Each structure stands twice: as C-alpha cells, then as structure tokens.
Structure prediction request, 568 residues.
Amino acid sequence: MGNPRRQPNPERRNEWWTTLPSAGWLLVFFAVPTLLIVVMSFKPAGPYGGFGEGWSLKAWADMAHPSYPAIVWRTVWLSVAATIVCVGLGLPVGFLLGRADEKTRALLLLLVVVPFWTNFLIRVYAWKVLLHPSGYLRETLVGLGIIGENTLLLYNEGAVLLVMVYAYLPFAILPIYASAEKFDFALLDAARDLGASSIRAFWLVFVPGVGRGVLAAVVMVLIPALGSYIIPDIVGGPAGEMVGNKIAQRVFIDRNWPHAAALATLLMIVTLLPVIFAFVQQKRESVPDGSRKGGGKATA
Amino acid sequence: MKKATTLRSRHPLPVLATAVALVFLYFPILVLVLNSFNASRYGASWEGWSMRWYELLFSARSRDIWEALQRSLVIGVAASAVSMVLGTMAAWALNRYRTRLQKAHFGLIYLPIVAPDILMGISLAIFFVTLDVERNIGAITVAHITFCISYVALAVLARLQDFDGSVVDAARDLGANRWQTIVRVVVPLLAPGILAGGLLAFTLSIDDFVITFFVKGVGSDTLPLKIYSMTKHTKEMPVINALSTLLLTFTFAVVWWVQRLSRARAVA
Prediction:
C-alpha cells in the first residue's frame, strides 16, 4: 500500500474518523458494560433487588457456598468433554472434506452449514422432543433392551453433553476443514510408504498438520459451551444446570445483581483462559511457519 | 495434483465418521418435520397425517407469533444496516493503518466474538437498567448492533486483503473528491464482503435468544423469545414444529436460490 506510515495531519485525522464510530460504539456498549459487571460484583445487594450503596465482598464470599464449586466444575467438565467429542468427530470429517473432489466437497460443506441457519432454539427443542420420556428414541431404546424401563434420557448431564455436541459440531468441522484444505495429502502417502499404518499416519502426520485448525476448533467450541444457557435450560433440568443458568436465576428470580455479576466475572475469567492460551500458541507458531492465518472463524 | 496421489487404499473411517455426523445433524430436524404433520399432540406416537398445527399457526390464535416475527425482521434489518456501515469503516481503518490505536481497535472488534452471549447479555442489561434506559425494541437493536459490528468488520477485512489500494489514489488523481471515491470506487469493490457480513449479521440477529432475553423489557418478544415461551407450554409444542418446518423450508429455498445464482454467475 502506497501510503507512508506516519504522515502527521490528514492521514492521522482520517484514521481517527474511520476508527471512532466502531471503536466508540464498542467502548460504550461492550467495554463499559463489561467493566460495570466487575465493579458490580463488589457492591452489596440491594434490599429490594438491584444493588446497594458502598462496597462489599459478600457476593464473592457467597461463591464459596458448596453448590457453586459443583456447578463450576460441571460447567467445565461438560464443556471440555463436548470439545473433545466435537474435535474427535471433526478431524475425520475435516480430513474427508479436505481431500474430496470439488463437487462432493461443496455438497458436504453445504450439508454441514445448513443446520446453522435453523434457529438454535428450535434445534435444541427438537432434541427435547426426541429425548422426551414418551418420545420415539426412548421407546425404541427401551424396546431394544438397551436402556431400562425407568431410565430417563432428559434432564441430566448426559442430555446436556449430547445436545452441546450436536449444536457445536459445525464449529469444530469448519476450522479443521479450513486447515485440511491447505494440508498436503501426499505427506500421508510418504508416511505410508515408510511403513506407517493409515491410523498412525492420520494421527502422527495429519493431526499435527492441521494443528492450527484444531486450535481454532477448540476455542470455537469451548467458549460458547462454557457460556451455555439455553441447552442446560431446555434439556438439563436442575441436575444439568450450568453457570449460565445460575446467572439467569440471580438476575430474574432474586434480582441479586452483585451475585449475578460475581458469577459472570467468574465465567469471564474461565473463558479468557483458553483465548489467552490460543493466542500465545498462535504467536509462538507464527514465527517459524510463514503461512497465512488459519481463517478459522465461522464466517461461512 | 496432490490429490490424485492419494487415490489408493482409502480407509473407511473418514467416510463413516462423516456419515455419522450428518445423520446426527439431520435426525432431530427430520423428526421435527415429521411431527409437524402428526395428528398427535405429544408427538410420541404416530396418529396419522394432519394439517391441524398449520391451521392453528395461521389462525387468529397465533397472531402474536407473526407479530414477534415482524419485530425480529425489523430489528434484524436495522441492526445489520447500522453494523454494515460501522463494520466497514472499522475494517477500512484496521487494514489501512498499522498504529497502536488499531491494535486496541482490533481488540475491541475481536473480543465481542469470543465473549459468551450470556456475558454480553447480562452486562448490557445491567448497563441499561443502571442508566434507566427504557428496554424496548430500540435497546434490543442497540444490543444486536453491538455483536454484529465485529462479524461485518471481519468479513470486510477478509475482502480487503486482496484490495488494491492504488485504485483509491488513482481515483483521487483523476479528480474524484473523497465522497465520490468512497461511493463510486471503494464501496462497489468491497460490496461482496459488505453483503456477506451484513447477511451474517442479519442471521445472527434473527437467531439471537440469550442477549435479547436479558436486555428486553416487558412485551417486546422477538421470534426466538416467543418460541422459547412456547416450548415452556407443552400444549403449544406442535405449533412450533409447524413454524420450524416452514422456516426450514424457507432457509433451504434461499440457500438453493443463492447457490443457483452464484453458479449462474460463475458460468457467465
């Protein structure tokens, strides 16, 4: 690009004029409200909901109540498990997409993306109907003798995990595919020629080869999973509650804002960890590897 | 060429995994579509074909569903229009300048994408209540613009990667003023990116439940909120199936049409 880096007046002014609208908007409606949450968590609860005068650590002290560590733990393990399953299934699918011919690939990609365009709520709700005590799936499974007469498929951690995998699977497939598209599949033949089995070649050559896509897939699945609200709300019941549900209860049921804010701050810290990890990892990788960024965002 | 070398001895695992993934993705949707024609209220057993849920959907009793859809469309159009303008300007600045200001700017653009919806929802809700802002359709639109800007910015940024900056200088040299350069040269060249970003923003806005759920006050239900309240009342479940089937058909039709359009253009 022809423009010099530091031209004092007009360029500098142009930069401000093009930056200000978006930056200003996001400062006011994203950064400030987010900081407000952190501040709010150090306020005392108001007598009639909302928040009171002065400062207090009560909301944070309340986090020690035994029900909270259990919920945080459930949120983390369910999200990590969903991420592992999504990436595990996304790898072979991405592999197939990466080496399919043009026509098959376009069709498969379309099939993976179309469920995205169905309302998220409706997709989650579809599972509620399926897993319902009188739904087809349970009847069939009971009929086949796979599950007992009294087993419930709905309202437990398993249901939440299943539907999370369902909802976030495309988020894992797309970035892995984006990397697989640039992967040189001849490397696999080389590995085979050198005596590796297909599975070994897949594992030791393909998986590290699409590492960047896997990393993007982990972030794309793990973060929305950690912040899940609808899925545990619809198919989880009290036994499948996650941090998101607790935040909503504090806001809508007891209107205890400081409490909700402390939970939200906790969730913020937990979600920032994988982002920072991915960021550091990408910085480290970008030095020896000259290729362009993975472009893993779900802009499809 | 590199693909031709791998034709020999294919392992069945990738094909198998893909088949499993696709069945998994489509099975619940298929059952839902079938149930929309099921006479049974609870969808547990098949009680014969029926159009009663569609009739109910189009009867006067479902008027608020259509009002919610209308509200969703208004918010979606407004939010994507504003975020297309703000997002395109953001992408332009991010691409053209390499300053410390742009590093901070990129952070502001990137963080809303990775932040979970529920965090954005609760922080905006508390922000609006603290400022005593009326939480009506306008507040919902502001919230939607906030999460849409980033997606438009990234879509336009991708398009700008292969944008030749010298055309701007050329236009200026040929006597175009700043406004003419923007309207006649820059925007038409970036149009595919801006439209893709706008379409994504519209989809995200129409689909959003969590942020709207936290931000909205009384009585401004968008379609996802209406669907949510219907899922809580078992009696109305099959009407949602009918509505979902119609929305699905519509989505498929649009996708098919866009595909055909882009294929026709590729041939031409």
Confidence is low (pLDDT under 50) at residues 288-300 of chain A. Chain A touches chain B through 92 residues (CB under 8 Å). Residues 83 and 222 of chain A are 6 Å apart (CA to CA).
